Amino acid sequence: MTISTTDERRVARAHLTATILVTALSAVLLLSIMLLVAGDLPDRLATHFDVSGVPDDDMASAMAMGMFALVGIGLPALLIGIFATTQWWRGDGARAFSGLLAGLPVGLTTLFVGLVLANRGAAAPDEVRLSPWLMLLSALLAIAVGMVVAWVVPRGLPRPAPEAVTPVVLAPTERASWFGRVEMGRLPLLAMLGAVVVLGIATLVSGIWWLWLITALVALLMVAVTSFVVTVDGSGVTWRSAVGLPRGHIALDRITDAGVVDASPAEFGGYGLRMRPGALGLVTRSGSALQVTHGRRRFVATVDDAATGAGLLLGYLEIGRHATDQH
C-alpha cells in the first residue's frame, strides 16, 4: 500500500496537533490556577496524604508549585518530543498512543489543581484535607480525554513491510552463533538520566526520605533496561540485561518463524523491556528489529544486523524440518 507524502504529513500533523493542543491547554489551566490562588496558600503545602486524606508530608510552597509545573507540564511535553522522533503515528497502535499522550497531562493537571485548591486558605499543612475522590477523578478525566483524542485522530500510517531474509545454510552437524546488542539511544537515555537527577534534587530539597527509595529504584530500572545482549544459537534465542537480570530464553523447538520488521517504541508503549498482549519487546529505538515468532507470541528486539540473526534462526529451523521429514 502506497501512502502519498501529503497523506503522511496530514496524519503526522493530526496526531501532533491533538497531543500538543491538549498538553498546552492543560498547562494554561494549571499555571492559571496556581497564579490565581498563590496569595491564598500557606508557606508550606501539604503534598502527600494517607488513605483518609490527612496530610503526612509537606513541602515549601514555591518548591511544590515548581514541582507541579515541572511534572505536570514538562513531563508530557518531553514525552511528546521524544516519541515524535520515533514517528509514533505509524502502526496499529498509533491512535491509542496519541490518546495516552493526551490523557497524561489531563490527569496530572487535575491532580495538581486539586492539591493546590485543597491547600488554599489553610493556615498550615496539617489543616488540609484531600478528597479521596481526586485520584479517581484524575484517572477518569485522563481516560475520557484520551479516548476522545484516539477517536478523533486518523488511523496510524502503515509501517514498512517486513524485510526478506535469506536463511543461513547450515550442514546438519554444523553449529554457529550470533550476538546482537540492544542499546538505548542518546535522547531517551538523557531523558531517563534527567528524570533520576530531578528525583534526586527533589529528594534533597524536600527532605522526604522515602523519595530516596523511589530514586534508587528508578536508577536501578534504568540500568537494567537500557542495554541487552541477544544470542542466537542451536538452542534458540537468549536475551539478558547488561546487569544479568531480567533475562529470558526461547527454545528452538518452540520457534515457528523469524524475520526482520520495522519496530517503534510507540508500538510497545515506551522504551526498554516492554510487554504487550502477545508480544515481548526489547525496544530502544525505531527501525529494523529481529522478530521471533513462537506459537501465538512474538519477541522483538531492535538489534543491529537483525537480518543475520533472523537468517541463522531460519537456518536452524530448516535443519529441524529436514530432520523431521527424514523420520
What would a concise description of this structure say?
The protein has 7 helices and 11 strands. The protein is α+β, with helices and mostly antiparallel strands. It has 2 domains: 5-152, no CATH class; 178-184 and 226-326, PH-domain like.
Could you explain the architecture of this structure?
Keywords: Membrane, Transmembrane, Transmembrane helix. The chain crosses the membrane at residues 20-39, 59-84, 96-118, 130-153, 187-205, 211-232. It comes from Ornithinimicrobium ciconiae. This is DUF1648 domain-containing protein. It is built from 7 helices and 11 strands. The longest helix has 33 residues, at 5-37. The strands form 3 sheets. Strands 7-10-11-9-8 form a 5-stranded mixed sheet, covered by helices on one side. It has a 4-stranded antiparallel sheet with strand order 3-4-5-6. A two-stranded antiparallel ribbon has the order 1-2. It is an alpha+beta fold. The relative contact order is 0.12. A hairpin with a 2-residue loop joins β8 (272-276) and β9 (279-283). It folds into 2 domains: 5-152, no CATH class; 178-184 and 226-326, PH-domain like (Roll), CATH 2.30.29. The mean pLDDT is 81. It starts with a helix and ends with a helix. Helices cover 49% and strands 20% of the residues.
